[in-house]
Design goal:
By secondary structure, this protein is α+β, with helices and mostly antiparallel strands. The chain has a single domain, classed as 2-Layer Sandwich (Nucleotidyltransferase, domain 5). The chain is built from four helices and four strands, in the order αβββααβα. It has a four-stranded mixed β-sheet with strand order 3-2-1-4, with helices on one face. The longest helix has 18 residues. It is globular.
Length: 118
């Protein structure tokens, strides 16, 4: 059962990546969600470089208490904070094959609240 879910997510991921490409001006926000943590990074696909990366396992965010959705929103806000420090205001959102629901949506909303436009 799990193998088919992995294949399904991979095919969706490849379909999304055909359309969503990041540049230095508008990097791609890639989201990875595990059972315990959530990770987000802004990527310049032209150079193949990660510009900004944030995780719920970072020192400041690991101390937060709350639901996984609340922590994901905090990760999105922290990502926006680091991006604005790097001079990034616009981005493209790559949900990485996950449904735009729950923690993925909370991270995107937190990034929007922090000032990133996508």
């Amino acid at each position: 059962m799990a193998n088919t879910n992995i294949k399904r997510r991979k095919s969706i991921k490849l379909r999304i990546r055909k359309v969503v490409n990041g540049t230095a001006e508008t990097p791609r926000i890639s989201v990875f969600r595990s059972n315990k943590a959530i990770y987000a990074q802004m990527i310049d696909d032209l150079k193949g470089v990660t510009l900004v990366a944030v995780s719920s396992r970072d020192k400041e965010l690991a101390e937060l208490k709350g639901t996984k959705i609340e922590i994901a929103a905090a990760v999105g806000k922290k990502l926006a904070e680091k991006a604005s420090a790097a001079g990034i205001t616009k981005a493209k959102f790559d949900r990485n094959g996950y449904l735009y629901h729950g923690r993925v949506k909370a991270l995107a909303d937190g990034a929007r609240e922090g000032g990133i436009q996508f």
